[in-house]
Design goal:
Length: 167
């Protein structure tokens, strides 16, 4: 499957009126290291948030984001801390809110990262990349232990190179 086929728009909750409401306690603490990082990275043209799932697909999405942002195109991309962006309105959320181009690397079709962030930033419409559509593997596998680490890394590299070519 090519890159454009994995980036189809999703049906929004606004269109079908389905929401789940979640209460999150406001953060009382803040990490200055996280905010300093966000401030240093804010001029980069592409912000990358991603699935952080503990399954095989989530792990490949996570490694893809790290390879993309810290190895292949660090001068163009900034890796967003999904937890920080979702749970507090500070530097990480600003990276998402103000990005010239926002990629959401989703491990699968559930689109957790983009749905989470759309819950805290009204009207957010990231460019979805469903990473498990960009490599071939046994789709019956679920756990990280179901695939050797070197294969996980190879799949993540394949996806990262595919995305980097579009930047």
């Amino acid at each position: 499957m090519n890159f454009k086929d994995c980036c189809k728009p999703r049906t929004t909750a606004e269109e079908n009126g389905e929401y789940e409401e979640i209460r999150i306690a406001k953060a009382k603490n803040n990490c200055h290291l996280c905010d300093d990082y966000a401030d240093r990275q804010k001029e980069k043209p592409v912000a990358v948030m991603c699935c952080e799932g503990a399954c095989l697909r989530g792990e490949i999405a996570r490694q893809t984001a790290n390879i993309l942002c810290h190895s292949l195109v660090p001068e163009k991309t900034v890796r967003v801390c999904l937890g920080g962006a979702f749970t507090k309105d500070s530097g990480q959320r600003d990276l998402v809110r103000k990005a010239g181009r926002l990629l959401s690397l989703e491990g699968c079709h559930v689109n957790c990262a983009s749905r989470m962030m759309a819950g805290v930033i009204e009207g957010l419409e990231p460019e979805l990349v469903i990473t498990d559509r960009l490599f071939d593997f046994d789709r019956s596998l679920f756990g990280i232990d179901d695939m050797p680490p070197e294969k996980i890394r190879a799949h993540a590299m394949t996806v990262a190179r595919t995305i980097a070519a579009t930047l």
